[in-house]
Please model this.
Amino acid sequence: MSAGLVVSGVSVQLGGQPILSGIDMRAASGTMTGLIGPNGAGKSTLMRAILGLLPHGGSVTFDSSDLVTLPRRARAQFTAFVEQNSDTDARLTAREVVMLGRIPFQPVWQASPAPHDLSLAEAALTAVGMTAFTDRLYQTLSGGEQQRIQIARALAQQPRLLLLDEPTNHLDVHAQLATLDLLRQRAHAGATVLLALHDLNLAASFCDSLVVLHGGRVAAAGPPETVLTPALLRQVYGVDAAILRHPGTGRPLIAYGLPG
Ligand SMILES: Nc1ncnc2c1ncn2[C@@H]1O[C@H](COP(=O)(O)OP(=O)(O)OP(=O)(O)O)[C@@H](O)[C@H]1O
Ligand SMILES: [Mg+2]
Model:
């Protein structure tokens, strides 16, 4: 019996090429896990495989039930996904995009949204600081505003398993910190949060554990303090790194540069 996400031996081939090879990883309930690794390492592919969005070998369970064979609607009632690039209907308002997160919970015969669904959408918009934008057409929002609306859509789903692919993309520094703080709060309230990040300092500050992908394999996994070593950063990213301490939080703070 394992609480949370357990990925065992997941392999993916695309275009005749192996993209992921025998991935084993865990993300425990009540924790925030960062998925890091260079461009092309397989982070987005792994997230899509976890959610059964592409064919793969191996198994994926959440709270011991098989995630991949679940019907789509049943899976959407406890999982949410913020993709790296979200395609959203151009004619929707910000509120309507957030309300998409409530569709898995609405009976097919329901003509208009229930008050409960509307209040969850409003709460999610408040949480990401976007209440002033609710009636704007989604397409007219800036990149960072759109990203925050996508995060609100996922939060409105009240997922027990939340996957986010580079959620701090497009966000200013305050919004990056506020968003990761919000996600960590959801995790520590009991959700399982798995997010792909490129900023290693944000990953070190906010994540309880990290999984490092490199060339479609797991190169390291564990708490940021043990995973983020100069040797690993040289091997995986080809950078020279010094690991310092954040003066405020005591978390690892990485100073990196090109070798030589
Ligand atoms: N249909 C495809 N055919 C062949 N290769 C593919 C296909 N789709 C993805 N890939 C390759 O799979 C690898 C992993 O891609 P993926 O998007 O998972 O990487 P990533 O770790 O998310 O990278 P990034 O940090 O740039 O988002 C990349 O090398 C990509 O070019
Ligand atoms: Mg990606």
The domain at 1-78+159-229 is CATH 3.40.50.300 (Rossmann fold). The chain has a mean pLDDT of 94.
